[in-house]
Write a structure and sequence with these properties.
Layout (H helix, E strand, L loop, with lengths): L1 H21 L6 H26 L3 H14 L15 H5 L24 H4 L3 E3 H7 L2 H14 L8 H13 L9 E2 L6 E5 L3 E11 L5 E12 L9 E11 L3
Antiparallel strand pairs: 1-6, 2-4, 3-4, 4-5, 5-6
Helix pairs in contact: 1-2, 6-7
Length: about 240
């Protein structure tokens, strides 16, 4: 997009410059070129301003996001504490019921992709999330996974919540704009067979440049581990709805 914007700038400048020189009248060629260069530059700047307003630059968007991130209160994707469910209580845990997604076409004022539920991947490996995390998050998640991987009945709510993040962002028009709320409003449930369901809010940017808050319900299940490779997590259900609706 930046290259096309540059071509439009150069084309508008050159076309206006040439037009002024050809229609300079009684002016000599020297003054005609000076006026043509100045006039062409002004017209090119107007064209550039129009293209910037219609198609915002990705660099400007990232800078705005960085500025918003600086003034925003720090949030964490990980819950503050890991809940521990007694074995006896887990035996009586309910069986998971699938979430029906509200998979409707998405207008421009929505931060969701059209038919978003069909765009989410079916499963994601823990190693993939580790590779995409920053150093601090990668170390914390790897240490927690190492601690719990030997226990088939361990409560892996924290890992499961982290695994929900890429499923949620895969449904957004601009995944990099996603800002998850902290764990104060998090509602989580653990079911049998390492199934976890989470409900929280995420704020994301729509095509109009507005931030929209959504309530999401995400259900994931850890799949059987293959050798020493970190386990895959399968998406069982995902639903997003505007927080004020």
């Amino acid at each position: 997009m930046d290259f096309l914007r540059f071509l439009a700038f150069v084309a508008a400048w050159g076309f206006m410059w040439r037009w002024v020189v050809k229609n300079r009248g009684s002016w000599n060629i020297f003054y005609g070129n000076i006026v043509g260069a100045a006039g062409g530059f002004i017209v090119a700047m107007v064209v550039l301003s129009i293209t910037l307003s219609l198609f915002p630059s990705s660099h400007d968007y990232e800078a705005a996001q960085a500025e918003n991130t600086q003034v925003a209160e720090p949030t964490s994707l990980l819950p503050e504490a890991e809940s521990i469910t007694p074995a006896a209580e887990l035996k009586d845990a309910p069986v998971f019921a699938a979430i029906e997604p509200d998979d409707k076409p998405s207008p421009a004022d929505s931060a969701l992709l059209p038919n978003y539920a069909n765009r989410a991947p079916k499963s994601i490996g823990l190693q993939t999330v580790l590779d995409q995390s920053d150093y601090q998050g990668r170390m914390a998640l790897a240490a927690l996974n190492k601690k719990l991987r030997g226990d088939a009945q361990a409560d892996k709510s924290m890992i499961a919540y982290v695994m929900c993040s890429p499923f949620v962002t895969s449904t957004l028009r601009f995944p990099n704009s996603a800002r998850f709320a902290d764990s104060k409003g998090l509602v989580s449930h653990r079911f049998k067979d390492q199934v976890y369901t989470f409900s929280n809010t995420v704020t994301a940017r729509n095509m109009n440049g507005d931030d929209v808050k959504y309530r999401f319900d995400c259900s994931v299940q850890e799949q059987p581990r293959v050798d020493a490779i970190p386990a895959e997590w399968r998406l069982l259900g995902l639903k997003l709805q505007k927080a004020d609706s």
